[in-house]
Amino acid sequence: MSGATFTQDGDVLRLSGAVTLARLGDLPERLEALSPPPARIDLSGIDRIDTVGAWVIHRFARERSVPVEGADKDTERLLQQVAAGDRQPQVRPERPAPALRVADQVGGAAIRAFGTGIGLVGFFGGVLVAFWSLLRHPKRLRGHAIIRQFEVVGVEALGIIGLMSFLIGIVIAQQGAIQLRQFGAEVFTINLVGRLTFRELGVLMTAIMVAGRSGSAFAAQIGSMKLAEEVDAMRTIGVSPMEALVVPRVLAAIVVMPLLGFYAAIIALIGGGLFSWLSLDIPPITFVTRIREVVPITDVYQGLVKAPVFGAIIAMAGCFQGMLVEGNAEEVGLRTTAAVVQSIFLVIVVDAFFAVFFAQIGWI
Amino acid sequence: MKRDTDDRCDDDIVVRVRGLANRFGEQAVHENLDLEVRRGEILGVVGGSGTGKSVLMRSIIGLQTPAEGEIAVFGEPMIGRDETEAKNVRRRWGVLFQGGALFSTLTVAENVQVPLREYYRRLDQRLLDEIATYKVAMSGLPPEAGPKYPSELSGGMKKRAGLARALALDPELLFLDEPTAGLDPIGAAAFDELILELKATMGLTVFLITHDLDTLYAICDRVAVLADRKVIAIGTIEELLALDHPWIQEYFNGPRGRAAAGGDQDLGRAEREEGPRLREQQRQAEAGQVQAQGAEGVAR
């Protein structure tokens, strides 16, 4: 089978071979380079033709205003078909000038961020209303769903949070010891581990882990339920999605977070203690005694006060983003990412406020 | 005939399936299934839910490796071929998946260009753009659909865009998985019309999975019935109606089957006359939808 080619016979252009996508070769370029244009195009010599071949011939004939002849019935039909589709090609949507686009994107992002903020506040209000109505009608509380969330958010997270905290305890002790050794004050490693884990790291790292594990899961679960119209079905039946989906998750996170935070702090102490014992020759009994001396009870309170707030933030950000899902499956992924980013960011912001607040009330 | 037919395959069977078996764990979907698709025909494949219509299609196009059996497309065995050989066969067919399966990060026109770029790297950008544009037009989409992203299209338009991509390489064989499912009756009739028209101009062979009785009556040359893990019957609808199989009788003689059959004689003529008008209406309706959705997109 020969490729597409042509011969010039006086002012007649005779095409021959297979004028198809696979056999086109450099025919378009060679036709382009042709000058002067022929008076007629003769297609009687071609073996085969497809829509791409027909298009190339149609384009050439149109641009040079040359009549086409010698086409059989099928070829004629193909030529008509592609001629009917002859439009100004547009492949990508029109985009504004770059400078304008930057302004557009910055403005759009600002408006979206503002909208999200408003939405989050509104959602917070909605959750409060749902809580209030459940307080007045406690029978509507879904005990089973809440227990199930306790298990998912709390019990199933024990392993990974324990491992993480243990390693963090070791890292703090080891890094602290290296620095303090320069002053011969290695024994203060205990202060460092004890105070840091109870005040900050125990709860903060737990919050980050819960945001990654459960906040994302909340967004994805509720998001896919939105996509499958399950949430709409609930509303139609008269079940409030706030009460059925959001409240159990928020409640579980609020209750479980202090427990997880305290657990994380204890495990981190064990890690730090183990490192001190093996590497700094501080026996466990000394470690425990020193911890009791240097860690004020207010440090423990700080962790326990912050934890439920962080839990509420994580659960609400996750549920909020899940509820925002609409359209397609891609949205679920985007919203899940947004839930994690938003909740970790908010947790750290609120943590900074707490730090200032506790310092002000003298819990130093 | 000057169509792009294949010289290596001189018999008239485009797809030949012999003794196909597909199993998922314990569950056998196909056992000893035989099927032949002839050149230039529109073969409808019907069967109850779960009879493995889609699995059969996936087996033929190589997305599902069967447990047993032989599959030949254009006379070339398909099972156990290496990637380059399989690619040469693959470029000669187009597939339209149920939801369109458009690449969501590319515009409709860019979607159409993907197979062209993959197989014919030397095509210049201008020709690529022009090819994408007339393919989009041939699929019955309005001009403004080309630069749109799939998320901005309605379900019917996605199917048309998917069809445009399936037709990108001027295939000889077209696989359609429930092309009219989820379309309104006008859109479905217009889609049927479009397939017939494309078959006439491009000499296509079509493997069509459908539940749509109207489509079966309107465009299919032959119908294959899947049941009991194999093709229990294949032939024209008249031939199938003469058979004494309970499922086939219920399928074609149920209330919906009779309605589709009764309307067929009139419909066939009506469609020939009204088809273009209906299609124009549909096109305008969809164009309106695009604009509405475009506006929505901006508002978002």
UniProtKB/TrEMBL annotation, chain A:
Subcellular location: Cell inner membrane
Membrane topology field: Multi-pass membrane protein
Residues annotated as domain STAS: 12-63
Sample GO molecular function, one term: phospholipid transporter activity
Coiled-coil portions: none
Matching Pfam families: MlaE, STAS_2
Transmembrane feature ranges: 109-132, 152-173, 250-280, 300-325, 337-363
PROSITE patterns hit by this protein: STAS (PS50801)
Superkingdom per UniProt: Bacteria
GO cellular component: ATP-binding cassette (ABC) transporter complex
Record key words, sorted: Cell inner membrane, Cell membrane, Membrane, Transmembrane, Transmembrane helix
UniProt-listed InterPro entries: ABC_MlaE_roteobac, MlaB-like_STAS, Permease_MalE, STAS_dom, STAS_dom_sf
Keyword Secreted: no
Function: Could be part of an ABC transporter complex.
Family, similarity comment: Belongs to the MlaE permease family.
Protein name as annotated: Phospholipid/cholesterol/gamma-HCH transport system permease protein
UniProtKB/TrEMBL annotation, chain B:
Coiled coil (residue ranges): none
Compositionally biased spans, kind Basic and acidic residues: 266-283
A GO term for molecular function: ATP hydrolysis activity
Bilayer-spanning residue ranges: none
Protein's name in the database: Phospholipid/cholesterol/gamma-HCH transport system ATP-binding protein
Matches recorded under Pfam families: ABC_tran (PF00005)
SUPFAM superfamilies: P-loop containing nucleoside triphosphate hydrolases (SSF52540)
Chain spans, region Disordered: 258-300
Segments of skewed composition (Low complexity): 284-300
Keyword set includes Transport: yes
Keyword set, alphabetical order: ATP-binding, Nucleotide-binding, Transport
InterPro entries registered for this protein in UniProt: AAA+_ATPase, ABC_transporter-like_ATP-bd, ABC_transporter-like_CS, P-loop_NTPase
Domain (ABC transporter): residue spans on this chain: 15-253
Species of origin: Sphingomonas jatrophae
CDD domains listed in its UniProt record: ABC_Org_Solvent_Resistant
